[in-house]
Every structure is written in C-alpha cells, then in structure tokens.
Design a protein that fits this description.
With about 725 residues, this protein is mostly helical. Helix content is about 50%, strand content about 5%. Helix 21 (about 475-480) links the parallel strand 1 (about 465) and strand 2 (about 490-495).
Length: about 725
C-alpha cells in the first residue's frame, strides 16, 4: 500500500526557484561570452541553425522568450542569457519538490523540511559549473536540466499515486513526451530514461506491458521528436547561420532521418543528427584511458564546491577538504533517499550513475585540457575544459548533498535535543556560494563582445577574415547578426571549409544582391566603397567536389595580388586548405584578405611571411619583404615577435577604435583555454611600444608598455585568479 505523502509545497518551491533566479540574474553576463554562447544567442535571434544536431527546441524557445522580454528594453544577449537563468531556476523548482518529498519522510517538523529542501536547492544551484552555465547561455544544457528535473519529479510523483490512478498514467505519458521533446534540444535530455524504466520496473513493472500506456507513450515520442522537422524547414529559408545545411527533399526522407536518429533518410539531416561533422570514434575506441577520463571527471567534481580556493585547474589540496565534505554529504543524501523509499533511491542512484560514470564512458574525451601535460602529441587533449557536460550530475549531487546536510542537522538536533541549537550546521550549504562567487560571477564581463568588436573593426570594408576555430568565430557572428556591426565582413571558419556545405554557403551569401553593405562609422578609419561584384568563391559544386586531402602531386601555384605563390610537390594540403587558397585567389582582386593572427590558418597555408598586422588582424600583402616597404610599415624587433605592422593604422585602432572592457582590467580570468585573448593584446601592445621606441616617441612607448603590462596581468589570471605557470 502506498504511504501518504504531503501535498507538494508549490509556493515554497516557487519562492526557492525565484531566489535562484535572482542569484543568476544578479551575476548574469551583460552580453555574449566565449565559446558557444555567441553562436546560440545569434541563432536564437535570427532563427538560424547552430552546429549539429541543430537544437531546434532551444532556437524556438529562445526566440519566443526574447520576443516576450522585448518590452522590457533589455539587450538581446541579456534576454537569451536570462533563458539560461530561468530554465536552471525552473529545475530548482522541481528539485525543491523532490527534496521536500524525501525529507518529509523523516521525523522532522514541516518547517525543518522546508528549510532542509531550501538548503538542498542552494547547494545544487551554486555548484560551480551549474552556476557559471546558468548566468550565460553558453550551452543548451540548462533546458535539458529543466527537462530532467521535471521528468524526475513526474516519475516520483507517479510512484506516490495508487496503481491505476489516471493521474499517474498521465504523468508518465507527460514524462515520456517531455523527454522526447527535450531530445530536440539535446540528447542529454534523454539521460533519465534508464532510471525511469528501472524505477517503473521495481515499483509496478506491469505498467510497462499495458497496451494503453505503450500506445500513448509511442504517440508522445512521435509528437515530441516531430519538433526536429523545423530543421529542414528553416534550412530551406537560407538563414545566414545554417550549419550543416540540413535541407531535405520530402516528408518521407525527413521523417526517416528524424525517427531513426539519423540512421537512414535525408542525408544532410541524418548527418546533422548523427553529428558526423565531429568524426567521433565509437566508444569502444578510447580516446584516452578510462582511468584518466575518470580522473578528469573528478577534477571537475573538485571544482564544484570551492572553486575559489585555488586558481589552478588540477585537483587541489586546498579544495580537497571541501570536495570530500560534499562527497560525503552527497552519499548521505542518496542513502537517506534509499532507506526511506527504495524505489526513489533506485531512481536517483541510477540517474546519478548515468550522469557520471555512464556519461564519462559515453563521451569518451581525449586527455583533459589541463591534465597530463606530459602527453604532448597533436590532438591528444581536449581544446577546452568540458565540465559543462556534467552540469546535470553536479546539480543532482548538490541537491543530494543538501539532503545529506539536512539529515546531519536532524541527527545533531536529536543529539542536542534542539534543532535550533543544531541549526548552525546549515551554514555549510552556503560554502559553495561563498567560494564560487568570484569564479562563477559574469556580471560586467564584456570581454568576448569587445574582442569581437576590436577584431572585426581591424579590417577594411568587404574583407575576408579567416579565423581558426569556434572561439574566434562565434563572437564575430554574434556582433554581426545581433548587434548589426560589420556585416560586410565575410568571416571564414577554416575548420568548416572541410565540409561540403560551408564553402557553398559562403559563395551564396556573398553573391551580388546578398552581400551585405558596409556601414561607415565615425570611429572607423575606413572610407565607403562599392560592394564587390563577385562572390568570395567562383568554383561550382562539381569543382568543389574534386577537392580532397593529401600531398600535392605537382607544384601548385596560386595567383595572389599579381604574384604566384608556389607550393612544392609533396606538400600536404587538406581540402579546407585548398578551398581557402581558392577563396583567396578569387577574392583578392576586390576584397582585402585578413587572418586572425599570423599563426593558425595563416601559418598552415605558409602565408605568414606576408602578413602585416593591423591591430589584432593580419592582412595578407604578398610582396617582396626584403625590398622597400609602404611608408607606414614597420617591423617589430625580433625579441618582440619580428612581425610587420602597419604602424599608423595599428596605433589608430589601439587608441581610438578598440574597447577593452574585461580584457585590460580584470580580477579573475576564469577560463585558461581563452587566455590567448589577453595575450594577443599584450603582444600587440608590446610590439607597438618597441616600434615607438625606434620612432623616437618615448611617450607613446611608455603608454603602450603600460597597456601591455595590464594585459599581461589579465593573461596571468587577473589579480584574484593568479595561476602557477
């Protein structure tokens, strides 16, 4: 017989959720951020298609949410960031109900239960990764967090209702639908499925065999997954950001791709849903030893409860006491749930195992970004820290640690004879808040936005700007599509040139009639000009299809600026490199060619010796570097990099155009994988200072040297986040 449970405390849960939302709003990013935040904000604004698998649920939700908040006059980026805050706070609503349900089975007063559930929510919401992913829309995982929390509540609520109760049947079907719908946001939303089935099996296994339930569940899955039809429909509208271009010819092949998760059907959509673009090996081929992958996971677990105790990334002795404390409290929380209600315990433990060990095995990461420095082979490490993939697990563990703390409070209250006397122990719940605040706080951080502004405005009108990867591309997309700045510039992601769809899109977007105009601005040193008469690439589809990877069989010459750049036989050039060279050849007569620095793609194409720095960008100027140079060109001394600079243009950019918010002065630079950004500014200012000395301008040299010192301090982690190097 199912025991009675209290009526859910809806108002208390709403208050807890509102408190969490307020915390995230107070620490909210005021604009875009590094990595995928810019891509997601931009695609939400223009109803574009982000990287595979396309995330249509996120795009539509974010667009609707942004429109609803428009009357408030908030910037678009703030509105989308508030979606992350709102969905994560919504998850706290359901976690509060779950915590209250478990604690109500202990011998605690209702007031103590309400307080204990609040402590659980506080710990879960202030875990470092949860917090730092909830005050900027860097990923789509906070929507999945909301889905998982809601589904978990529905399953446990079904557990409490009598067998045959129609409300329970509806809850299960709703949970199935929400899981399927969540899959169109990200497959992370389906992670509760195993725990869902196990809980039903140990509670009322016959439920899984009822034809009526199975029929409704099947229909719920069909309807939920149908949201993916938005991908080919939107691709047909040719949005500016249309990654993977999942265009399909008909309904049948589209449905086949959607309902088989890309195993058959429409090739473009199927490839997007399978994420073929990332060429991940099967999980049986480990990209790093499983023991190391578990170490990497524990490293991220070590961050959650006291990130501010040590600025260094690896597991820290200074953080370890807090890590062990919350590890123990979490175990106590799971034990409490298990003892008071076995099916609830089975569900939560199965879910936690899925979100931790199961996910570690499935994700199959390379060596951790900041771990195993002795492993130095190419592409052996992840390009950044991947803690965000475990956001759901860290949130759940935090809630269970809060439950363990409430259980400890009850035990101390029984020992002392007074819950009030024992109440100081609840201060432990505030430890993550206090020790994570400086590292999770994004208020006032304009670094990604201003860097994108500076880089885009470093180039002439109608330029082609080659970037090196996601992190130096997506902020440029944000600035162009959301703020409407420098849309005339064709941003080219070097990595995407290896795909079939991307070169064709660039050709399409730069055709006469679609090429967006240059909009002069007083702050910029560029004169207006007529738009180019040709696209950036003249090759047709058949010609592009002939480009492949491998060594050159013969000498290969590319005409650039009236000079043939020769590549010798046997030199290895990938498809992307060959497309890039063709683009440079076709664009150079009408469009200035720039790279995001003389390293990266420019170095790979062996063009660095002809790079001329104009601020942060390197302009391709093919010339005799040993002969006479244009009047403004200056070469930095070898000890300062030895690069060529357009000195007057760079000085003008540094002094009159660039913005440095969060880059020149900053207390903590949280993400070591983006520290090359302040380093770029430091090296540029240092080189310009050295050139100024050669020009006999001591005042300018001191000004740029001071600027370089400021950037160096930020590169080293900021005043409050110094890292050992």
């Amino acid at each position: 017989m199912t025991e009675n449970v209290p009526t859910p405390p809806w108002k208390a849960a709403a208050c807890a959720s509102a408190g969490v939302f307020a915390l995230y709003a107070l620490t909210l990013a005021p604009t875009t951020a590094w990595w995928d935040a810019s891509e997601y904000i931009a695609t939400a604004h223009i109803m574009g298609i982000p990287h595979p698998p396309g995330n249509p649920l996120f795009v539509v939700l974010a667009r609707v949410w942004s429109l609803l908040l428009a009357p408030l006059g908030l910037p678009i980026a703030v509105r989308v960031n508030l979606l992350a805050a709102g969905t994560s706070a919504g998850a706290s609503f359901f976690f509060y109900l779950i915590a209250h349900r478990i604690l109500s089975r202990l011998r605690m007063s209702e007031r103590a239960v309400l307080i204990g559930a609040g402590a659980a929510v506080l710990v879960g919401a202030t875990a470092f990764t949860v917090w730092s992913q909830s005050n900027v829309n860097e990923k789509v995982y906070t929507i999945s967090l909301l889905v998982v929390a809601a589904v978990s509540w529905m399953v446990l609520r079904w557990r409490d209702l009598p067998a045959g109760d129609v409300r329970g049947q509806r809850l299960l079907v709703a949970a199935v639908y929400l899981t399927a719908l969540g899959a169109t946001n990200h497959l992370m939303s389906v992670l509760p499925a195993g725990a869902f089935l196990v809980c039903i099996a140990v509670t009322r296994a016959g439920q899984l065999l009822q034809p009526a339930f199975l029929g409704r569940a099947f229909l719920a899955v069909v309807v939920g997954l149908s949201f993916n039809f938005i991908l080919p429909l939107r691709a047909a509208e040719r949005p500016v950001i249309n990654e993977a271009d999942p265009l399909c010819d008909g309904f049948v092949e589209t449905a086949a791709a959607i309902y088989t998760n890309g195993k058959t059907g429409c090739p473009a959509l199927a490839a997007s849903l399978r994420r073929d673009q990332y060429a991940k090996p099967p999980v049986t081929v480990r990209m790093a030893p499983f023991a190391h992958q578990l170490h990497n996971f524990f490293q991220y677990f070590d961050w959650q409860w006291s990130r501010g105790m040590d600025p260094d990334e690896p597991v820290s002795r200074r953080r370890m006491p807090f890590t062990l404390l919350f590890l123990g409290l979490g175990i106590a929380g799971f034990a409490t749930a298990w003892r008071r209600d076995r099916s609830t315990g089975v569900y939560l433990v199965t879910l936690m195992l899925t979100l931790s060990f199961g996910l570690v095995y499935y994700l199959n990461f390379r060596y951790g970004y900041s771990l195993a420095p002795e492993i130095t082979g190419p592409r052996t490490h992840e390009v950044r820290e991947r803690d965000y993939f475990f956001l759901l697990g860290f949130s759940l563990w935090g809630v269970m640690a809060g439950l363990g703390l409430a259980r400890l409070w009850l035990w101390l209250g029984n020992r002392t004879g007074s819950m009030r006397v024992a109440s100081p122990v609840l201060a432990v719940a505030a430890i993550p808040f206090v020790l994570n605040l400086g590292w999770a706080n994004r208020a006032g951080d304009y670094a990604a936005r201003d860097w994108a502004y500076d880089l885009l405005n470093s180039v002439e009108p109608y330029s082609v700007l080659f970037t090196n990867g996601d992190n130096d591309t997506f902020p440029l997309w944000y600035l162009q599509e959301v703020e409407g700045i420098r849309r005339d510039v064709t941003v080219v992601v070097g990595q995407y040139l290896y795909t079939d769809w991307y070169p064709k899109q660039l050709r399409e977007l730069t055709q006469p009639g679609r090429q967006r105009p240059y909009v002069p601005a007083e702050v910029l040193p560029y004169e207006d000009r007529e738009p180019p008469a040709r696209p950036v690439l003249s090759l047709n589809d058949d010609q592009l299809a002939q480009f492949g990877d491998g060594p050159l069989p013969d000498s290969f010459g590319v005409p650039i600026g009236g000079i043939f750049v020769q590549y010798p036989p046997g030199m290895s050039l990938g498809r992307g490199h060959r497309v890039a060279l063709a683009m440079i050849r076709d664009s150079a007569p009408e469009r200035p060619i720039y790279f995001a620095g003389t390293g990266g793609e420019m170095a790979t194409l062996a063009l660095s010796s002809w790079g001329v720095r104009e601020g942060l960008a390197a302009r391709l100027h093919v010339r005799n570097v040993e002969g006479p140079q244009p009047s403004g060109y200056r070469r930095a001394p070898p000890e300062f990099g030895g690069e060529w600079f357009d000195y007057p243009r760079t000085v003008e950019l540094l002094d009159e155009v660039y913005s440095y918010r969060g880059i020149r002065e900053r207390r903590i630079w949280q993400d070591m994988s983006t520290e090359s950004i302040p380093l770029q500014y430091h090296l540029t200012a240092n080189a310009v200072a050295a050139i100024a000395i050669g020009e006999g301008d001591g005042a300018a040299a001191e000004r740029y040297s001071a600027m370089a010192r400021d950037f160096l301090a930020v590169y080293q982690g900021g005043e409050g986040g110094r890292r050992s190097r």
